[in-house]
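worker-03 picked up job from queue 'complexes'. Input manifest follows; two sequence lines, order preserved.
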Amino acid sequence: MKRTFSIGGIHPQENKLSREAHIETFPVLDVAYISMAQHLGAPAEPVVQKGDKVKVGQVIGKPTGFISTFVHSSVSGTVKAVEPKGDLAGNPVMHIVIDVEGDEWCEEINRSKDIVREIPFSSEEILEKIKNAGVVGLGGAAFPTHVKLNPPKDKKAEYLIINGTECEPYITSDDRIMRERPDEIVIGAAIMMKALKVDKCYIGIEENKPEAIVSITRAASHYPDMKVVALKKKYPQGGEKQLIDALTGRKVPSLALPIEVGAVVQNVGTSLAVYEAVQKNKPLIDNVVTVTGNCVPQHRNFLVRVGTPFSKILNAIGGAPSDAAKFVSGGPMMGKAVANIEASTLKATSALLLLTEAETKRKEEGNCIRCGNCIDACPMGLEPYLLNKLSRIGGMYDELEKEKIHDCIECGCCLYSCPAHIPLLDIIRVSKAEVMNIMRNRSVKK
Amino acid sequence: MARLLVSGAPHLHVKENTQSLMRDVLIALAPSLLVSIYFFGFSAIKLVLVGVISCVLVEYLIQKFIMKTKVTVNDLSATVTGCLLALNLPPSSPWWLVVIGAIVAIGIVKMTFGGLGQNIFNPALVGRVFLLISFPTLMTDWTIPESWFRTDVDAFTGATPLGIAKEGLAAGLTLPEIFAANEFTFREMFFIKAGGSVGEISALALILGFVYLLIRRVIKPHIPLIIVGTIAVMTGIFNLINPEIYTGPLFNIFTGGVLLGSIFMATDYVTSPMSVKGIVIYSIGIGVITVLIRYFGAYPEGISFAILIMNTTVPLLNKYCKPRRYAKEVKNG
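worker-03 finished. Artifact:
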């Protein structure tokens, strides 16, 4: 029996339609729109002005806080504007707009395809290189990687966990890089092990990706401390807390980070970006984006430069089908609905998913029939029906805290599985934010 | 592409809804319904039709004219209640008895609490118990109506095995004497038995419905299995102690309403607990109370009372039996 996490979880149809599509390099753009809010934490601050000439890989934004990182130009050309533009929700965010001229890269970037195995750097040098390359977590949250690889001094990391589960339906970008670039991923993991000074590494991959398991296992055979583990298919296995449980049996306490149980989790995409940053001096300027959906005639995996407008990606597949009603950036379970198709890709954009109205439109909300499906589905062992009920009364924050609403990982299993189609997660998200705010204020007062 | 849909994640949802779940329950009840039509003929059809129509109508009228809210009879939950109510009545019940049951079940038990999902008690069961207490003679009249499909009316006695056993014991007979006099056979009890409510007559048909509900994942197996298991263990022990007065496990499981009650009534989402721990306590409670009433109570059958009594514990069980949480402790400091 293959391992998986022990509480809750769901089995949505996997729909990995693009799994056999090789990674194709997306054509160089005419204009790139690069957001300064690429990562979790403080947005970067522009360091170029209108009229400046930039090369591929040149720094155009610098970090403005502890949790923040660099942004690099993904194209070469002239800065046309530094101005707020709509992100995928349509909210104004500072962007650097670059008119593309040619494709000239910074000299220090090694663009050869040769695999570089030697890691001649110290732990500190690795962290510095990762920070300077603007690497962020590519599993979705885009947390700056150098911060995560540098845990507080009183905590001891024991394991590096590499997340190759790709448990979201539809997305295949991680599957493709594991199949096409396994050596780079594994070397990236070895680099992070060195940065963390740990001697244990698990690579978890769900069993619906047998080719990736074979290629990663073969690549990891060079490293006796790395163990590739095939996991049973279940969503949300790629959640940090679920993956740690599945691989080590340890459970992260409430409100704590994975480091509390000695684990640091990184995505396979991040691992590849770390390899490129450390071994090739290449900043994070491109990533693999899956373009798919049941209504889409072609399922593709594109290597796109950061700052590519979604509308350009749609053009590349021949335009959006007429029955596509919702565009999702990311997977169908945790991705964000795109309101502005002129918004551009970020470092951590993993997919552009097109759904029809029939597939995605929410059914009319009915009364809760107390079937308990949300409780069975919740991977944190919470009671979403109760959190919904308490939230709707209003002001029941003490009760919500007692029911551990702050443990919610917003995976969407409850809303997905509700036969009464109650917007459980929407409601829970709002009161979770409020409860966490109250808890934060209380700890500040102490 | 005139406009884009935008909403929070997740962007996919299960296909099921309340209506489809209720439809599955109706499909699961179909075998029992067919057997009862075969056995009781037009009476069974009449009871079920009157039950369904009056339950749906009561819900419609209350929502439309008293609560003035959206009418939700399309969710089929009132249809299920009507069916279950009819299946819980003696086959010779007059039509107006069903109507009174429906008014109690939907009007009082379901709608006064706020409608679907809000009621404390199983509506159909309260309807049945209300009728049992108000019309004791009608509700224990086990005359078998005529059926076009059946010619051997005389082969069946009409009274329920549970009733016969209870009366016999009260008259001072021992169980072996009663069984010998009435020729109860396991075969008869399993496939088709005389005497009993409309929906109780075939264990096989009920079990078919149970299997369908499990395959469609409408219910989990816990509640029916634990109730039947508890009854089996408890009656097994009593039967070993004194087989002359205490009936055994097979007799207790396959007579009366244990299967109908545990598969279709105790599993009602609204009135059963949410967590596995709660479900275990609830189901054991139903089993124990059923056996106690059957052995020591005034009524020959106790499953309806047992389920209703345990229904009252559900809010408490939901409050104190939490599911297994992922994060046990809070980070120190």
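worker-03 released lock.
The radius of gyration of chain A is 22 Å.
The CA atoms of residues 140 and 348 of chain A lie 6 Å apart.
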